[in-house]
Amino acid sequence: MIDLKRILFPTDFSASAERAFDLALVLAQEFGAELVMFHAVVLHEDDPHNPAHHFPDPEAIHRRLEGLADSAMAELLGRGRATEARIRQVKSRGIAAAPTILEYAAQWDPDVIVMGTEGRRGPSHLLLGSVAEEVVSHAGCAVLTVRGGDDGTPLESFDRILAPVDFSDHSRAALRTARELAERYGARVQALHVVEDVVYPAYFGQNIDLSEELAVRAGVALDELVKSTPGPGQVEQHVVVGQRAAPEIAKFARRQECDLVVQASHGLGGVEEFLFGTTAKRLVQLCPVPLLTLKAFGKGLLSENE
């Protein structure tokens, strides 16, 4: 069973942060959770070793930025729909946004962090080390990332929830979480496994295609996984063949018009992916819909963690 008591919403007042706030409000209202609207006050240009970038009075500029943050937070709250959610506003100074967010999260211990993936510097910043990616990588709790979106439609509920699985225990926990969320919101759950196509060198002398056989075996394994994973509701099962898992998951989510993807941050990739799996990291960059990343070695959302 999922029981959220604390939700952390870091914001830089960008478009994707505004959409993330919609979803944070939905969760706060649904679970009766406390919601903290958090802003990291950062002086990117304040470098004491570079005279061209040195500010004569950083304290005054910090106070000015904090005042602007207060105004922006009030405006964001004013644009939101009427809510009975408990909301606190917190500002904290730091040398960079992600470490400041992570430091506060370590102190306050939220159940989930809800944040946008595209900051004020635009989606191009996603390619290398975005704030969202760093938070997802290092936070000790689940992180729900939200892209900006073009239509501006508020995110109010879930109808289709996608759970990518690789048959690891961590993906089993993601499937359980997806089923619990689906039960609460009356949504459908789709379990997806991607068979990564293998291309053999030409010196094998013949065309070898194991994809079809692997897909059949994956279908059997997926059926067994779904049946052995507890949770309410029915689960649709899908197996697709593709070059890499993350792009195929993103394409599937878009094609099926999913509202949420629930993934584990650690799969079957071995020791080198202990902290944050390659597929999980890539999906944060590519996922076209809200993405809930569960931490394999952190705080889970289920009251009983397996």
Describe this protein's structure.
Helix 7 packs parallel to helix 8 (278-286). This protein is of the alpha/beta class. It contains eight helices and ten strands. Residues 45-58, 122-129 and 269-275 have low confidence and may be disordered. The longest helix is centred in the N-terminal third of the chain and has 22 residues, at 58-79. It is globular and about 60 Å long. The protein has a ten-stranded mixed sheet with strand order 3-2-1-4-5-10-9-6-7-8, sandwiched between helices. The protein starts with 5 loop residues before the first strand and ends in a 12-residue tail after the last strand. Helix content is 37%, strand content 21%.
What is the gist of this entry?
The chain is an alpha/beta fold.
Index terms:
alpha/beta; Rossmann fold; 2 domains; ten-stranded mixed beta sheet; 10 strands; 21% strand; globular
SSE string, helices as H and strands as E:
EHEHEHEHEEHEHEHEHE
Strands, total number: 10
* CATH homologous superfamily caption of the largest domain: HUPs
Shape annotation: globular
Q: Sketch the major β-sheet.
A: 10 strands, mixed
Task: Evaluate the radius of gyration.
Answer: 21 Å
Class of secondary structure makeup: alpha/beta
Sheet-strand content, in percent, reads 15-25%
Going by CATH, the architecture of the largest domain would be 3-Layer(aba) Sandwich
Unreliable sequence segments: 45-58, 122-129, 269-275
CATH secondary-structure class of the largest domain: Alpha Beta
Number of helices: 8
Number of domains: 2
